[in-house]
């Protein structure tokens, strides 16, 4: 679905650099490489887990406090299952970046990052299966791939994020990207010891 609204353009433009940094991060970049190793895959999952949990928790909290109904489909449990299946201990979740959800715009910004990540998961899942085989635990990247969550998100966003909330959405989306980038940087720093 091609989204052309002013809100979409605003979010896309404001987060372009953070999105590029995330996509090109040395911990995530191997996920789309034809030479992806099992160790690189494991490191990426370990690095993504804390941020995925925190972002989903913040969105769920925001939906509750804003009294809004949205078909949230958490992927953190699938990520946890993948890590356990790979005999990995779940990383400790430490608060590094605060995710505020006091306004509808903030919720939309967080959902923008959360639902946008689903789109990229399709490409990653294809590469993981091609390079490591279909037997590798990969529910995090494959769960709910056939749904129309991106379209549902934009319909929800247009209803609940008027123009005066756009900057709150941008700020929250930027914080969500920073949450993931901080986790990847931390993992990269501790890579010899593992990301836990």
From TrEMBL:
GO biological process: heme oxidation
Pfam family, one: Heme_oxygenase
InterPro entries reported for this sequence: Haem_Oase-like, Haem_Oase-like_multi-hlx
CDD domains tied to this protein: HemeO-bac (cd19166)
Signal peptide (from-to): none
SUPFAM superfamilies according to UniProt: Heme oxygenase-like (SSF48613)
Molecular function in Gene Ontology: heme oxygenase (decyclizing) activity
Superkingdom field: Bacteria
Name of the protein in question: Heme oxygenase
Species per Swiss-Prot/TrEMBL record: Oceanisphaera arctica
């Amino acid at each position: 679905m091609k989204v052309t609204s002013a809100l979409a353009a605003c979010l896309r433009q404001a987060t372009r650099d953070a999105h590029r940094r995330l996509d090109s991060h040395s911990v995530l970049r191997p996920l789309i490489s034809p030479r992806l190793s099992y160790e690189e895959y494991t490191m990426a999952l370990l690095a993504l887990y804390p941020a995925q949990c925190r972002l989903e928790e913040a969105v769920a909290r925001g939906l509750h406090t804003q009294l809004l109904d949205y078909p949230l489909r958490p992927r953190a449990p699938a990520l946890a299952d993948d890590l356990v299946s790979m005999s990995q201990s779940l990383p400790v979740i430490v608060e590094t970046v605060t995710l505020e959800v006091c306004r509808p715009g903030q919720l939309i910004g967080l959902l923008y990052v959360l639902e946008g990540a689903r789109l990229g998961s399709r490409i990653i899942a294809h590469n993981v299966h091609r390079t490591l085989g279909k037997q590798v635990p990969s529910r995090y990247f494959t769960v709910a791939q056939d749904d129309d969550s991106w379209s549902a998100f934009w319909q929800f966003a247009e209803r609940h994020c008027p123009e005066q909330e756009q900057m709150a959405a941008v700020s929250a989306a930027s914080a969500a990207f920073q949450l993931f980038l901080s986790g990847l940087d931390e993992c990269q720093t501790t890579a010899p010891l593992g990301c836990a």
